[in-house]
Structure formats: structure tokens, C-alpha cells
Amino acid sequence: AFDIGKLRDQTGYVTYDPGYKNTGATKSAITFLDGEEGILRYRGYPIEQLAEKASFLEVAYLLINGSLPTQTEFDAFRYEITQHSLVHEDIRKILDGFPSSAHPMGILASIVCSLTAFYPKSISPELNKDELNLNIVRLIAKLPTIAAWSYKNSVGHPYVYPRNDLDYTANFLYMMFSFPTEKYEVNPVVVSALNKLLILHADHEQNCSTSTVRLVGSANASLYGSVSAGINALWGPLHGGANQEVIEMLEAIEQDGGDTSKFINKAKDKNDSFRLMGFGHRVYKNFDPRAKIIKVAADEVLQALGMQDSPLLKIAQELEQAALTDQYFVERKLYPNVDFYSGIIYKALGIPTEMFTVMFAVGRLPGWIAQWKELRENKEPIGRPRQIYVGELERDYTAIGERA
Ligand code: ACO
Asked: What does UniProt give as the signal peptide span (predicted)?
């Protein structure tokens, strides 16, 4: 029988905190988050100001380097990024090897990890500042190309090479939607909405994927290997994968006849594992400040694209209303989160559903890099949680023929 006293004698005391709900795993100077008040700041700057005024690359620079760039610093940073946006031609061969049914997140994680093979020096834990910066720039520069090509591969279309005259966000859209035979006209409303979305996703302190990046990085693993692990964590439907699930849920409700109350009741039924995707958050228990900004952006984009009457939007609005008035959601403080609205915007922008989480990964990249860099600079110890052992205490081996 399990004897907690005996176990304590063997292991000493450990804190039991499943899901790390109350465990501060690190000290960080990157992102401030107050879940009760709904506050989010990057390096002290309110998310509302950054989403309104900054470009995504400026925010990336801020997160990674700690301060907003001067014009000269920004121009140099942007120039470097454009110089590295091409990927090695052999990456095309790896991409070609994936079946078209492959989910782009799986491709993204694999190709990012494969960068360690193309840049073998990147795995050294002893890189100097310039070498480290080069790895960082390479990753920021190449991720949109890899992401867009993973999409092109999944639909069997020819890859489109990056254009250095376009800004980061516009270039990504161009590589996604252009064909050799038909150039994609970059729509400024779309670029502005995407820029905002990427900024809102850029960091979120010690969330699941970022903690993964830090944990893997704490073993002195490379930047590319650590970020690849973070991409896999983000893929999970309870994390970044929720934005894809939101649209799939809205479509399922529509196909079922559009009765939202049926699905709300399902979500409330404790014998049913169904959850309303895009509702609830581990940290924000009043509202998600990012969701507030995105909701306005979603309205603007849908207006600008003439899609304000879409049936999916109507279903989304009904769910949103229910969450604000239904006792079940109010009591548990389950508000629409950032993924609820980001899925709607991505859908309106014509981004394929399977690419939603990839878009999130492109946005989250600067945060992962900043957190990995901070971990290294602070020389943090290897992450190694303990456990409460609840298995058999001790038993004797029996030969296979003698087992019951
Ligand atoms: N629909 C219905 N009920 C829910 C939902 C939901 N979306 N979310 C939580 N609940 C209920 C739980 O059943 C639980 O009820 P109980 O107290 O009666 O048992 C209560 O609310 C608390 O839920 P927990 O799962 O304990 O909350 P936790 O903080 O662990 O989980 C999470 C947060 C994972 C985000 C959860 O709310 C969820 O699964 N949401 C849907 C998925 C989603 O949108 N994920 C994206 C998160 S944002 C991001 O990653 C960028």
C-alpha cells in the first residue's frame, strides 16, 4: 500500500502544483501580465499602444533587445532581416518529402529544427554576441518563408520567393497568396490587421509554449531546437491550436442548423467533454486585453471586406453574448480569449484554417527568442521539476513464466 510517510523520508518535501498554476519558474523582465486587472505590457509598454502604433518588427526588436529601436537601429535590423529571408534551396527538398496531408505546424516545427543542420554552429552553447544575433535574425527572417512554403506544399502550389521591397507582414502575405502567374495585390487593411495580430501574440510570459522553449533551452539546447519544441507545444488545441478549433466549432454549429444554445448547453454539461473553444484563460479571469483590441480589429476588417453579414460572425456574436450573460460562464469567468477573434479575422483574410496556428507561431517567435536569450543571459539552471510519486513502493522481480 502507498505510504506517504515512508515516501517523505525518501524524497524530502516537494511542492505539488499540477499545471504550475502558482509556480514562478523564473524571473523575467520581458512581459508584465496582471490577469485580474487585464493588463499586458511588453518591456513596460502597454499592449494597447504597441498594437495601435508600432510595427511587428519594432515590437520584435523591443522584446529581444529590451528597448524600442531608434530609426537607425530599426533600419539596420530590418535590412538584416531582409538579407536572410531566403531559405537554403535544399529546404525545398525536405518540404517536397512531406505528404500534402501534413499539417503545416508539423512541417514548421521540423523545418525550424532542421536549421540546426544547415547552420551547425548554431548548436554550440558558446556563441559570441554576433553569432547569437545572426541565429536570431536568421530565424525571424526565415520563419515567414518556411511558414508560407509549408502552406504552398500542403496545397501543391509552387513556392513563392520573398520580396525584400515589402515589409515583413506584407511579404508573408505575398508568399502565401501569390502565384508565378498571378501576383497577389497586398491589401493595406489586411496588412494592418495582420500586423496588429502578430503584435498581440508576440509574447505572453510563461505560457505553455514559452515555458517549453525555456525548459528545452535550459539544457543548453540550441535556439532552433528550443523554438521547434515551442512550436509543437503551441500546436496543442488547448493552446495556440484553439484558433483553428474556434472556426471549426463555428462551422460545425452552422452546419448543425445554427442553434448556439444547443452547443452552450453541451459546454456546460459536465458529462460532455465539449468545451466552447476560444473561451476561458488560465491567467485572465476578467477579460483578455488582447481580445478587446482584436474584437475592434475584427469588426474593422469585416466591414472593410464587406463581410459583416457572414453567418459565422453571427454565431460568434451569439456565443460571445451568452458568455457575458450565462451564469455558468460568468461564475467561472470564462470570457472570449484572443483566439476566439483571431480565428475570425484569419478566416476573413482568406487564411486557410490549417494555417491559423502557424500565424500564431510567426507572431510568438520574438517572444520565444527573447525568453530563450534571457534564460541564457541570466545563466539559469537546467529546468527539472520534481514529482509526487504515487506508484508501487517496492516489489520483487518475478520470472516471466511465474507471473499471474
Ligand atoms: N467551455 C466550457 N467550460 C469551460 C471552458 C470552456 N471553454 N473553459 C473552462 N471551463 C470550465 C471547466 O470545465 C471548469 O469547470 P468546473 O469548475 O465546473 O470544473 C472551470 O471552467 C475551470 O476550468 P479549468 O480547465 O480548470 O481552467 P484552466 O485555467 O485550467 O484552463 C483553458 C484554461 C485551458 C484555456 C480552458 O479555459 C479551455 O480549455 N478553454 C478552451 C480552449 C481555448 O480557448 N484555449 C486557448 C487559450 S488562450 C491561448 O492559448 C492563447
From this structure: none
